Amino acid sequence: MLIKIYNPFKKEEDRPTPSSVYNWRIYFVGLISSFAALEIGYDSGFIGGTLALNSFRKEFGFDRMSESHSSFIISNIVSLFHAGCFFGSILSYPITFYKGRKVVLISSALFMALGAVLMLISNKDRGLGPIYAGRILAGIGVGQSTSIVPTFLSEISPPPIRGRVSAMYEIGWRTGDLIGFWVSYAVDENMSTGYVQWILPFAIQIIPAALYLALVWWVKESPRWLFSVGKDSEAIENSKFYRKLDDGNDYLLSEISSIKESVNEAKKKVGTGIAGPFLILLREPKLQKRLLVTASLYVFQNLLGVQSINYYSPIIFGKIGVDGTNATLFSTGMFGVVKYIATIIWLMFIVEQIGRRNTLLYVSPICAVCFFYIGAYLKVEGGAAAGRAALGLMYVWCFFFIIGWSGTPYIVGAEVFDNSLRASFQAINSMFLWLSVFFMTRFTTDMIEGMDYGIFFFFASMALISIPWVYFLLPETKGIPLENMEELFDYPAPRAHILVFNSLKCGSDILQDKADESSLTSNGNLKQETIHVEKVV
């Protein structure tokens, strides 16, 4: 019996693709973008633990506040960052419309770096004002990056590896998570209580922001955006750069032709004005449905509890029975390890193999079971064994949530709209993301106080509701070229992918047959043709 060895790097191609298309430049741009995500992940990893440090609480007088007032201030510190993210999402669209994707990347890096520096000014004499302002500015940068980075990566990546390249953004996020959790634990474990103990975690934010700002200048503009604004010559050069192909390559010619055709159709359909995407959204119910599906993925992501647990993990783990600041910080550090491992597995074995839709359907029931158990444990106040099981299921939930709901919304949201709509609708998706994050982080402490164990039943119920929503509304998108995404929504979601993918393969075979026939001379010999890309002046 032969044993088939699984190859996680096998690519499902809709057409013959030169190997040079899968080159280091694509992955290096993914790496650069991961520094933007690292900044986001670090914030979610470090802020909860740092705000719980006795040194921070003494510096700003939390030890003299009532518990309700202290919770209110902490919620403000956390949620102002997300308010900045929301407005950064709005700001990203006009910038990318007029100036392109790269300018938004640079702008996001500048805001992140400025915000990180500003937070360091805070102390007991100046108060929390610089932290508030710095978190808003950093949030604006993060909001811009979440709007444009997934869009940019989806535009420059070949279809067979688009999910994997986009997943590098998620890897950066989880790397930041991991570092942030353990920095909080390390300063609590190894440093004496004082100013340096709490300011150091804030200072480390500058590192990913500075790296991102330094490297983003190397990135070349998206060819799809350049074609959309009539800069065809530069678009062709950038296409050659990202594909590592010469002028006469058939794959390059085909891709450029497809992009230009899509751009021309979009201009006829949407127009060239900045308000065009929103006007067509009002006219087309099918487009409204598609945007509803993508935006809902971001909302479900947060209603399943991830941000509540990220930012308030010391409180959450304390509820389960982990006592003491050091113990809760260690538990949250292990939380970061689980998330990082799960993200690597998702990148290597799931995002392009199992796909986007199926993964969500597989993990949601598991997430629901985990939270139903934790809620039930807190309700009946079970013994030590039940408490250990609850803690274990928190990590089980974390693992399956990450491989399903953590990165998938970003990939799908950046994939399913055509070139003229992608930036504007991804900005809307990002607004829904940060609005739901703001809501959950701002009111998690209130939900814990008011609902107690019921907060876990709430998260579990949202996981169950997501299952029929995804099954009936979200088609699989892996391996489908961006220019053909609209076709997926013409069929029932469960069958859409196989129908569209097979039609693309059939079309590719027909075109190849015609090309082979046309290249034969009358005596059966191959006719040599020179194909070139004309420079557009």
TrEMBL record:
Q: Which keywords belong to this entry?
A: Membrane, Quinate metabolism, Transmembrane, Transmembrane helix, Transport
TM helices/strands, residue ranges:
21-42, 72-91, 103-122, 198-219, 329-351, 360-378, 390-411, 423-441, 453-474
Q: Which domain of life is it from?
A: Eukaryota
Compartment(s) where it occurs, according to its Swiss-Prot or TrEMBL record: Membrane
Give the principal location in a single coarse category.
Answer: membrane
Give any Gene Ontology cellular component: membrane
Note the InterPro entries from the entry: MFS_dom, MFS_sugar_transport-like, MFS_Sugar_Transporters, MFS_trans_sf, Sugar/inositol_transpt, Sugar_transporter_CS
A molecular function (GO) term: carbohydrate:proton symporter activity
Cross-referenced Gene3D superfamilies, in alphabetical order?
A: MFS general substrate transporter like domains
Q: What's a Pfam family this protein contains?
A: Sugar_tr
Q: Which family does it belong to?
A: Belongs to the major facilitator superfamily. Sugar transporter (TC 2.A.1.1) family.
What protein name is recorded for this chain? Quinate transporter
What species is given as this protein's source?
Debaryomyces hansenii (strain ATCC 36239 / CBS 767 / BCRC 21394 / JCM 1990 / NBRC 0083 / IGC 2968) (Yeast)
